[in-house]
Each structure stands twice: as C-alpha cells, then as structure tokens.
Design a protein that fits this description.
Layout: H1 2-8, E1 17-21, E2 26-30, E3 37-40
Antiparallel strand pairs: 1-2, 2-3
Length: 67
C-alpha cells in the first residue's frame, strides 16, 4: 500500500510560468529552480495565491540587422 500512496502523491507544485503554448493542448512550464517541462493544459490550474514574483530577465544584447 505504501507504493500506491507514493504514486498518487503530487511531484510538482507552483506557481509556474507558461513559457510556450504548443498545438493539441500542450504547454511548457518554467520553474525557478529546475528545468522547463511540458504538460497537458488540463493539468494547469489558475493561480490565486497573491502577487506573482517578478521575473528579472538577464542583460539582453541587441545586434544590428544586416541591410
């Protein structure tokens, strides 16, 4: 019975940020301390916990376009 309870336990919790939306109901989620992963959109729930932490984007460089 212990093996069954481990299978039913949730392995991820959020909040996560949706980084990309794919065809057929798949979304890619990003997490602060780990790799991005894909899930079906039906497994995603709305976040009602308060302010979402601001994500700081690293220093971006712009390059001139070739003419």
């Amino acid at each position: 019975l212990k093996i069954l309870s481990e299978k039913l336990k949730t392995h991820w919790f959020g909040p996560f940020t949706i980084t990309q939306v794919f065809l057929y109901g798949t979304v890619e989620l990003s997490q602060p301390n780990g790799p991005n992963f894909k899930v079906n959109v039906h497994r995603v729930k709305h976040y009602f916990g308060g302010d979402i932490p601001f994500k700081v984007v690293a220093d971006l460089h712009t390059f001139p376009m070739d003419k």
